[in-house]
Each structure stands twice: as C-alpha cells, then as structure tokens.
Amino acid sequence: MLLAAHAKVLAVLCGERDVLTGFVAPGGGVPEPCGLLVEDGDWRQLVLAAERAMPSSGPEQPAPAAGFEVVLDLSALSDGFPSAGAPSASAAPAARAGADPTADDGLPGACVLRVVVHPERDGWRLRLLGRSDVLDVPYAERVGGYLLTALATMTADATAEHHLQSLLSAAELAQQIDGLAGPRRPLPDRRMHELFEERVREHPDRVAAVHDGTEWSYDALNRRANRIAHALLARGLRPEDVVAVVTERNLPWMAAVLGVLKAGGAYLPVEPHFPADRIAAMLGRSACRFVLTEPGSTATLDQASADPGARGSSGQPVPDVEVPRRLYLDDVLAEEREGADTDPGVPVGAGQLAYIYFTSGSTGEPKGAMCEHAGMLNHLLAKIEDLEIGAGQVVAQTAPQCFDISLWQLVSGLLVGARTLIVGQREVLDIERYVEALVDGGVEVLQVVPSYLEVMLTWVEERQRGLGRLRVVSATGEALKKELVERWFAVFPDIGLVNAYGLTETSDDTNHAVMDRVPAHDRVPLGPAVRNVRVYVVDEQLVPVPLGAPGEIVFSGVCVGRGYINDPVRTAAAFGTDPHRPGERLYRSGDIGRRLPDGALEFLGRRDSQTKIRGFRIEIGEIENHLLRVPGVRDSAVVVVEGTDGEKHLAAFYAADLPLSVDEVRKVLGGALPAYMVPRIYHHREALPLTGNGKIDKKALAREAGEAASRTAEPAASGGDSAPRTATERRLAEQWARVLNIPVAEITRGQHFFESGGTSLSAVRLGVESGGTASLEDIVNNPVLAELARVMDEHTHQGKEQSA
Amino acid sequence: MTNPFEDPDGTYVVLVNDEGQHSLWPEFIDVPSGWNVAKSADTRDACLAYVEENWTDMRPASLIAAMTAAES
C-alpha cells in the first residue's frame, strides 16, 4: 500500500506511467529495484500491482549502476507490515509528514529523494530526505503532502479511480489557478482603433509610420484608414464581415488594417505570393466578403478567384460562398465622399471579431483562428508594458503578414505615440541591409524568430557592428536556446531579450520572459503569464499537475479567441471550458510544459505532430495529406530533421511503385502549400516501415532521414554534372555545403541553390558566409553555382577596378 | 501522453454556456460550473455532428444581442 502510494506520486511527478524506485523492505537491507506500471484504474488494482512488483515477489531486475534516484525505505517497519489486500483505515491518515532535506545522511550516488517510514506510538511517521541542491524544502513538503493525500484517498475508497483524483492540496490548487495568473490590469473599454484616434487628436503631425523613406503622420495615416473604412461601409459592410487584405507590407497595408477595424470588419491577412489554392481555401472558409488589394499583388488572387470556395479535402460545407468584392486601395483612397477623412465612429464591441489568421490544420485544410477586440487589445497593452514601448520610440515591423506577430509589430506603437518602421522583405532577406535599416531607422524594439536572431548575431559579431538604438529584442515562434542567449548577452549586455510564447488562438503571446542577463535555468523559460491571462499546466482531467511536473499547457482568460471560423467541429474539440472558473473559455494548446520553481513556464515539446520551422507553425498531417494526392503515392510520412547547425527542415517519405520526379512532387505541393511547408528532401520507399501496432514508424524514418542528411545530398536537379572548377566555384561549393548541410563532394557546378534545399534564410546565411561578395539578389537571380561564381568574380573584378 | 479530449473511441457530452458556445467534454469528467449539458453521453462523432448542426452562429450570445440592438 505504501509502495502503491509512492509509485502513484512518482508517476504524477514525472508525468510517466512507468516508474522505477529503489525499495528497502521492512527489516532492512540494500535498496532493490522495483519497477511499476501505474495504469488508469482503481486503487485496489494499483495496490495489487504494487504487491506483485515487490522485489521479493517480482522478477529480479538489474539495479541502475549509479544507484536509484528515489528510494522508498521501509526498513524501520520491522513488524506490523500491513497486508496489501486489506488496507487499514487508521494507519495512513495518522501519519505525519516531516520534510528534512538538509539532512543528507543516507543519500548515496544519484539518489535525490529517500522516503523513510518510521513507526510511532499512534501510527507512522513519514520522513523525506532530499538532496538540497535538487529539491527545496517547500517541494519536499509538497511531495510529503501528495503521499499523504494518496494514502488518504486510497483508504477512504479503494474502489475509486486513482487517475481521476488530484493529489494537490487546496492551497496548491489555489496557488496554481490564481497565484500564477498574470497581473490583473484594467482593460480600457475602448477598441484599439479608438485609442489610436485619441493619439491622432493629441499629436496629428507626429510621424506614425515609415516605409522605404516615406513617412506618414498620425493624421495622414488616420485619414487614409478612415477613407478605407467609409468605402467599405458604403458598400454594405456589416459588423464582423471578413475583409481580406492582399498587399505587400507597406503603408497602404497599415491603413487597410486600421480601416477594416474602424468599419467593424474582421481583418484577414493574405500574402500575395501564397498559392492560389490556399488563398481560395482561406477566402471560401472565412466567407470573405471584400478583398482590399493593390495592383501587382493580384496574380495568384486572380487564379484563386477563378474558382471561389474552399477546395480543401474535409468536405465540410462552407456557408454563404459568394465571390468577394475586390477593391483597389488606390481607387478607394481617391474616392470623393463627404466626410471621408473623418473617424467613422462605428460602434464596435469588445467581444466583436477583430481578425483571423489561418494556421496549418492536420486534416489537410488550414483553420482560421478568430480573435476578438478585447484579446487583441490586451495583448497589445502587454507588449507595450513588458517591452516598455513609449512615445517617440521606433518599433520595427518585420514579420510576414500571415504570421500573427506582424500585427502587434504594426500597430502597438500607434497606441502610445510611437513610430512603426516597416522593414521591407528585400531588407529582411539581406542581413547587411537589414541591420542598416534598423540602425538608420533608430529602431528600439524588435521581434524576430530565434533562427533569424542567430544569423543577425553572427553577422554583427563578425563585423563588430553595433545595433544603433536597439533596446530590446523579443524572440518568438520557436524554442530560444540558452547558448544563443549567452552569446547575445556576451555581445550586447545592455540590450534586453524577451522570450515570448503564445499561440494564434490565444491572441498571440501569453507569456513574456523579460531577461537582462543569462537565466540561471538550463533552458530559457517561457516566462510568467502576461496581464489578465491565466496559464495552467494540467493533467488529462484538466486539473493542475503538481508544481514542477510535466503536463499540457492550457489557457484561460481574455486572451482565448473565439475558435476557428465556420468550423464549429474543430472549435468544440480544441476550445474547451475552464473547470476552475465558471463560464470561462479554455484553449488547449497541445504543448507540453512544466512550472519552474519560480513559477515561470518551461516548454518541453508537443503532444501531437505539430512542429515549428523558422517560426511557422506546421501540421505534419497537412503536408502528408497533400503528398498522398500526388498520383502514384500510396502512403506518405513527413519528419523533421535537425541539421548539425541546429536548423530544422522537413524530409518526406513516400511509398510508390517507382520513384517519382522530385521536381514534379515539389511542384504539386508548392501549388497547394506555402513554401515553408514544402519538404526539402524526398525519399522513395516501396513501403513505409511500421511499428508493432501498425502505425508508420516515424522514429525510424526520422533516424533514416537524419543519417541521410549527414551522408548524402539530393542529386542535383539540373545538368552540368561536374565538379566545381575555378577557385571561386570551389570556395562557393564549400560555403553551400555548410549552409545547406550537405557534403561538399556532392555539390556540382550545375547545382541549383533553391532546388538543393536552399531557403530564403539559408540564402541569407550564404550571403554572410560569402563575406558579402554574394548579395541575396545575386543568389536569387543566379541560383546555379557556376553562374553565381561568375557573378561574384565580376563583383570582385569591378571592386578592384574601382579601388585601382 | 494520451488525451481524453481527442480519443475517437471515448464517450463525450456536449456542453453549452450562457454565451451559446459549445464544447466537447469527456463524459467521465464533472461538468464545470457555468456550463450545461446540451447533449447527453454519446460517441465522439455523434457529439461532433450535434455541434455542427446546432452551433451555427459562432458569435457569443451577448454580442449577438448587442449587435441586434445596435441595428434596430
């Protein structure tokens, strides 16, 4: 019975069902190994399983060489050891827990916790000995509490299902639900665009936004946004009607976003370069009524409009499919209408829909996450507070439109009289121009994905360049490695780092870890919850797990969005109910994490196959479903491969009678998926390997893909199958090998950079590797190795002539 | 980690709150306060079908009321 309770507590603390403990039997002796599988069921079953697992009765198991991490010591119980089948109700509740982690006696080797049971006159005494460098006193006290709770519930009703019972005390539950909640801050009862309008009245002439050398004042931006709002209203826009904005990232884009919100519509960002199929699916699924666009951004939009309606595979009906009405921003801004420049003053509720971002969906169709005005405003204010954005500062807008972080980058400064600098895609893809843009623009606040932060840091380390007025950088979208944080503070001790974590469904970031030095933890924490947000780490019953134990990260509070647009089924399955706060909605992230001793959240992994590559969220299932539609493919699997440089890419495996043309497969996937979701490498198999229970053995495939990545490269896609000849070609081949993570011997003169797995980010890296002799433009225009080498030679030649 | 919210063979109920928002809920977990059972225990597919049929306006009820009042 003691062993059953002990195993139960261990299982809960580790988040694993299979536990191993050392066990000292009554009467003494050396600790013997005791492994136990804590399966869902009632206490009686668990006690019987514990009985069978006793070292004296169970099969002999080898003891771990380093000793046990945890030992249950019953040596003091020389007699009166209770029979496991008949728990006595008086024994356990009479026990008292005493935590004494400073007493290190009896903790050999790897042992971090020794649970000792002593007999006393009126019952038993529980004594916990912990290694003080691993466990602190409050933790040991809580563990003692969990043991007593387990014994109490077990003896109260042996037929109760133990997996439905929480071991947490009322105080710890309250601490986790309320104590770890983000700070409560009043949310103004006004919408984001109304707060912007207040700033316009205060300082109409202050610069609100800059792009490519053009400045718009607060007043100029507001007038344009108002014209767009009035034009939409005049055409019959109703509250919450979805308006797609299909533009490059520029000043009219900014006016369009504000205009849609002012009119009471819902903003739907669409990147002009997305595949037509995906645009059609987004417009159809969201029942989009208006499209705001500009000449030059309509090429794929034209294809998408030719076939309106969702073309996804789910077969779910899409209501009210109508062809969205297209408006050109130039025309709209030039329209003469009385009062066109004035604020429309349309009443917009706090719970009204503000925007929709489509994210990858596992069934093959993207899902549109809806967020409301209150959630959006709360997040904008959290960014303003935690990044300390104030009047006159410059905030950089660098993220693509389809990435939800683009929104706060674009508009948060407008609430406090700051300035937004839109850094165009040409700059983002050319690290030298990017840093120049940040420095020349006086940027103080920046948010990037960690992989880009690494590229930027490498570049400035090599050049010994400063970053101008930059004051704080936020990293988001993927795990921020501690090594990068160490490098950052070594170079820029005065520029803060903020690790941000959150999901599109929760109105972007919900946790900010504000750092002014390298954190003490092994991993960079996700930080505490932001204002008015609650984050729980829970078990399968949505009950918080013990502090420090792994569990699913779920969200409650104003941040939780409304669900997925026109998709009640996927909404009801992911957006739940908060059992701890009446009537509140809860979003289950599918992320696994745990609490650190200071309450900060640590990310441990994903429950499902969702992954992130360069900050973009990807459902592996969506890619696999599209791969299955390629003629000839019978089965498919996609795995994530991490290169030696730590950068991740996708590798696809397909089962088919014969190998398919890689170009052909890429073309099919590229027609339906954004570029970041198209796998880099393709492996043909006659059949895919299966696990014991008949599922595709992804682990084996990931291993194969990892080995293949370090061994061979994809054959070059184009001709000219010969080794590099000139010195420049050979040097370039070495640089490609490093950037693309393939052996230099495999690289040929005729090789195509982007067809060999090159991405925009690896092209930026190549630019850095080449020491600036190859610009990103050179690489894009001359993706074949020999061609690029020739262009680089020409640059060098010209450079010599100039300096001569 | 298995998840009772995504178990295709599990038994579920459908919950609705005052805002008309629906949620799939494993049958063996207590109904949280603020929510009522709209459909009693059934298969996951049947519950999803119920949601699909009955949750047609995804706006919160209070917002629908406010927007309707603003229109009239």
UniProtKB/TrEMBL annotation, chain A:
Domain Carrier: 731-790
Alphabetized Gene3D superfamilies for the sequence: 3.30.300.30, ACP-like (1.10.1200.10), N-terminal domain of ligase-like (3.40.50.12780)
One Pfam family matching this protein: AMP-binding
AMP-binding enzyme C-terminal domain span: 622-695
GO terms for cellular component: cytoplasm
Domain AMP-dependent synthetase/ligase: 196-564
InterPro entries (alphabetical): AA_adenyl_dom (IPR010071), ACP-like_sf (IPR036736), AMP-bd_C (IPR025110), AMP-bd_C_sf (IPR045851), AMP-binding_CS (IPR020845), AMP-dep_synth/lig_dom (IPR000873), ANL_N_sf (IPR042099), PP-bd_ACP (IPR009081)
Annotated TM spans: none
Region of interest: Disordered: 299-321, 702-730
Molecular-function GO terms, alphabetical: phosphopantetheine binding
Top-rank taxon, per record: Bacteria
GO terms under biological process: amino acid activation for nonribosomal peptide biosynthetic process; secondary metabolite biosynthetic process
Protein name: Amino acid adenylation domain-containing protein
Organism, scientific name: Streptomyces qinglanensis
Biological classification of the source: Bacteria, Bacillati, Actinomycetota, Actinomycetes, Kitasatosporales
Automatic annotation (TrEMBL), chain B:
InterPro entries in alphabetical order: MbtH-like_dom, MbtH-like_sf, MLP_fam
MbtH-like domain segment(s): 3-53
Entry-linked SMART domains: MbtH
A single Gene Ontology CC term: cytosol
One GO BP: siderophore biosynthetic process
SUPFAM superfamilies the record matches: MbtH-like
One Pfam family linked to the record: MbtH
The name this protein goes by in its record: MbtH protein
Organism this protein belongs to: Streptomyces qinglanensis
